[in-house]
Amino acid sequence: MLNDFIDQFGPSTVGGLAAGAIYALIALGYTMVYGVLRLINFAHSEIFMIGTFSGLAVIMTLGVSEPQSGIALIGLLLLLSVVAMVGSGAAAVALEQIAYRPLRKKGSSRLAALISAIGASIFLQELFAIVVIPHLYDHPRGRDNIGTQQLLDKEPLFTLGNTDVRPDHLIVIVASIAMMIALDFFVNRSRIGRGIRATAQNPETAVLMGINIDRIVRITFFVGGCMAGIAGLLYLLQFEETRYNIGFVLGIKAFTAAVLGGIGNLRGALLGGLALGLIENWGAIFFGSAWKDVIAFTVLVVILMFRPTGILGESLQVARA
Amino acid sequence: MKTAVEKPAKSGNPLTGARRGFGRAMDRVRDRWADAPWWQRWTVYVLLIGLALILPSDFFASFMSPHTHWPSLLFNPIGVYILLAVGLNIVVGHAGLLDLGFVAFYAIGAYNMALIGTKFGWNFWAILPIGILMTAVSGIILGAPTLRLRGDYLAIVTLGFGEIVRIIAENTDAIGASRGITNIPHPPNMFGLEFLLDPLPYYYLLVGVVVAVIIFARRLERSRVGRAWTAIREDEDAAEIMGVPTFKFKLLAFFIGAMIGGLTGVVWASKVIAIQPANFPFILSATILAAVVLGGSGNLPGVMVGAFLIAWLPERFRGLADYRILAFGAALVIMMALRPEGLLPSRQRKAELSEGSGTEASAEVGK
Amino acid sequence: MRPKIARLGGALAASMALTLTLAACGGGDSTEPAASGGGDSPTTLKIGFMGDLTGENSAIVIPPRNGAKLAIDEYNAKNPKIKVELVPYDSQGNPDQAVPLAQQAITQDKIVALIGPAFSGESKNVGPILEQGKIPSISASATNPDLSKNGWKYWHRLVATDAAQGKAVADFLAKATSAKKAYVIDDKQEYSVGIADVAFETLKAAGATIERDKIDQDGSDYSSTVTKVKAFAPDLIFYGGYYAQAGRLLKQLRTGGVKAAFASGDGSLDQNLVSGAGADAAEGAVVGCPCFIPYGVTEGPVKTFADNYKKAYNADPAIYATEGYDAATAFLQAIEKGHTTGEAINTYLSTVDFTGVSKPVKFGPDGELGATTIHIYRVKGGQITWLGDSTVAKLD
User: Fold this and answer.
1) In CATH terms, is domain C44-160+298-361 a member of 3.40.50.2300?
2) A115 and chain B: CB distance < 8 Å anywhere?
3) Does the beta carbon of B7 lie under 8 angstroms from any beta carbon of chain C?
4) Rounded to two decimals, what is the model's pTM?
5) Is ipTM over 0.85?
């Protein structure tokens, strides 16, 4: 057992960090929306799914047929990230407009918003499975995986002991930390960020201070959507496939990560995501991959018992500027 | 009960005027209902039970369910969803605790029936109390460490609990792992009803259970316990200060909710012959929650209508094949936009909410 | 007081009126093409087809449906005295949906025979209902070994069990690769665990050192499993499960630098295994199946079948298409001989003996096939190719 752990520690850590980085990026969307609206945006997982399909559309349109490198790769990745961010961001804004705004205007309960979100989530999944994928992606079996061309060479960059570090791992981890820092900067340093924080702390007062709440909410959804779009792209890069319900499991994991780190807390989302990825993969060494989710949820419960608001606590609302 | 209240649901029209008119009409009906003397109410109750008993007839089947066997549907999913929704309503609607893993209790009840029934060959009626008790205990096990958590933290923990129960069932060879359990015994015959494959006796059994549970839930709602739940739901801190032992009452809500979930599981498993972990996915918890909120969280008839519609509509529109689930998702969004407080909202809750809500911009309204 | 009751009564009456209107509408669409043309001898009989037609695993169920439909269309084109109609029942592979559909099929639609249910889980729950309704069934794809141990008299299947398949494939692999170290993986679904268990035992008995892990069917990231496999360094990997997960897993194994031979069972036998994993990663993967898919057959009745199928559905026959065709043929033979009730058809099935496009069709008293063969397929140049019967097939 211990031998196994020593043997597999390195690769598990790299795998766990890469998985955790994607959880973290999706968790950012949950956390931002939760911080501002106190709403679990259940359909956020579908925003992630739309991000993967936006990226896929570019790859199919360009007809990328072999792994790229150098300038071509950088250009391609930039283009893909812009499209994925815009695709997911726009979808998130549309989602807010259709599924949440009418409820918000009526001042209805958050439970109603949660059900609306579940409905939107089911709708989007089915829309992709029976309309979008068969017709726009020319893939008649809409519930099957769609594979993509490998975008970059996945030969290990370097090897530490028995641990191969592949370029896709590195890109995923570095990109998610970079996005995290950029977002933190945006929320804490920019004018709009101040508006977001003000709304999160006290919406009534924010209105009195001349903040356009609708606009702030829209921006929050857009930014959260952009993060999910990047996550979708990174996922595509790493796993080279997607499907209509790809967001389901990842969404639950990301939500868990957000709570683990302290929901409403941006840095908590990153910490929670990476921690969850590591816990799962390390746990799998001892108990087998079948118990991954049980381990993850058990750790969550234990942590919440000692820190009822997550590792770093809720902080988007708490004055931090 | 179901068909009688279904009429208003049907006339729910997207046009705002009609919608408001519908709301007012409902209010009038309810006022009158509240004033009606006991014998009038009991007449209606008896009529409703009578209706429930003749519901499986071919007359109803011809238009309620042209694509699927109507009496089977009435048992599962319709009856099962209604019972689950009544149980979840106690946790969500009354105590205001967001539970996203209710399916776990259903699963534990079903596994109790299956395990004890196949291993020891016990009778359904002997297993029933044990199943309920075991499930209630599991409700305590889940609730005791987690009920200090609030709102959405509780939601994710309960979601996790639901998944943990399913995965443990999937990974444990002693209870059949992914294969589940086969050859679960049926209840013994009684009152001339043969419990074999015909869904009708099971349906009647379920009607009996639903009636009993409704009476129980009603009495609870109007007791000290119900008032304590309302206090906790509206403002936990205030309730605590006023001397309500909030933790105890929240735990009690979990306990009773779990009991009803377990009861449903036992009854369901006694019919289906075989159960598998895959019968208890997370989406079922979400569906039952949707039923509660769609019908009107906290209001028993509303919750039952909600569960009925959610179970029945996708089967009724089988003809749409693939598109029915798509339409189902869209319908949830539209219904919530039109009637966010549910089809038949709890008036008490409605009053409490409209009193408490602030400006339109207020993000945090209600629990 | 009185007017109030009157009004309540009014509301009830209104709801009755509404339901009646609905009844009229409902009645409209339930009078489909006349079920049986009145008189004593029916002119149209209904055969049901039950399985996952729109869900997750519909790719495995639509081909046999098409095969069955083809057989029935061909039969009806001959202008027989009694026509046959195929009624689809989309259970989405879910027992909760399958049970009411089966009740409906028997009591309302009055089918005389059922092809399916496609999967084993739903078969467990539907079997007793068919038994009670005296409706014979032939499944083209339910492979759980326990199904035939229920003593059902009306139940049959046209495929070998998971036990037979897992053993045959594992034996074949042990012989063909002489693997010293093997790794068995499954995705925790009922079918997957069953076949993986048998493969595990068989490979172990053949003398291989062996380890095992499970993946999550809905998950995407299998890196923890890849890490385990890599640390164990096997020369053979057997995966029990369906093609979607198989493709994902295989791709991640290869990207993770695992080069061991990869093998799986019938659930993975789909071109999507190749497109999911990528042609390079999938190259050389071995897939066993109790089904016969006419890849590259150039003559005889099988070729005719493949051509007709292609003409009708604009696709090559895929998994269980031939079995679906043969199941329908068995029923049609009975009807041609004048057997028009479930019981009569069932009695006839015990005597049926013909060479179908998939295999010789002859049922034992427990509903299992008299003789079973397992076929071995392999991915070559991005295409699945047929290597032959597991007892004679060779890996190059």
Assistant:
1) yes
2) yes
3) yes
4) 0.88
5) yes
